[in-house]
Amino acid sequence: MRKMKPEDVREDFDKALDDVIAFYKTVKAELTKDSDETLLVQNTILTAATLWESFVNDMFIAYINRDSTRFQDHLQDAFKASRTPKQDVIAENFVTVAFPKHLTVDLITDLIDQRGENITFFDYGALKKGAAKYLIEDHRTGIDGLSNARKATLSLWIALRNEIAHNSERSFNAMNEAMNAGGLHNTGLQRGVNNVKHVGAYLKSKPTPNSKPRIELILDEMKAIAALI
User: Fold this and answer.
1) What is the pTM of this model?
2) For residues 130 and 119, what is the distance between their CA atoms, to the nearest angstrom?
3) How far, in Å, CA of 159 to CA of 51, rounded?
């Protein structure tokens, strides 16, 4: 039977992200062409944001595995919502839903998504709603308690990832909307007046001459936010 602990999930993510950051720094030090650096920063944020997606999925499962009371409420609600009026009558008279004292990781995974896909959230707001849906209050305090700047930064790297992966009009607009969030004020990540058309140029650039490139600012924040949730 698989077991997952939130602290182990967090540690695994931290190590994986450290490897991505180390690779980025090693490769960057050897590059001589600006176009190569563009590819590097785009692939780095794509890899890091994908790691984040897996991290959030595993953290939710680990938290539910530790205390599934809120998740069981969700399952009860989902069971009721999917019934027809006739099925309601049958259920009320003949069906009793009982949960085991402890839900296994495999069962939780199957109940969340039988297709075997990760739990995904398109921005911070969706993440917060998902936490309220699946997790007990003690397990969602880190998500709920993020600063406005970190909420906006989290939404930003998801939007950047989607624009690089899909390169669609929708992802482009969503990315620029995320870049314009008020929470990014004074973070160095908020865009200027005009839309950002080139993700690589945005990520490579420094908001001020003495600051880190934006890709590094985002990676630092990803690491810090993961430690909080």
Assistant:
1) 0.90
2) 9
3) 15
